[in-house]
Amino acid sequence: MTFLEKLEALLAREHLNRRTLSLKTGIPYTTIDNWYKRSYEGLKLSTAGKLASFFGTTTDYFLREELTDPDYGKTAGFDFTDCICFSGEEDANIVNE
Length: 97
Known about the structure:
Blueprint: H1 3-14, H2 18-25, H3 29-37, H4 45-55, H5 59-63, H6 89-96
């Protein structure tokens, strides 16, 4: 499944549209709309993290086309309650320290 197929499935599951997704995640509507119009090739890891956190899945689910189960990771026993989401440049400094 492609990123957009997964996003569409999760939007349908949650009865959301692109505008509502933007409002609830803080991802600009233009960013979401451009994924459909142009491409999602430049999808930032921090944005994938926001989507994963919102939908209760993993960034791997969004980034790896071979994964089709949004519960990937949970079924493997990963605990997401202690996960750290990287949200920007300041987080990159943590990784480099």
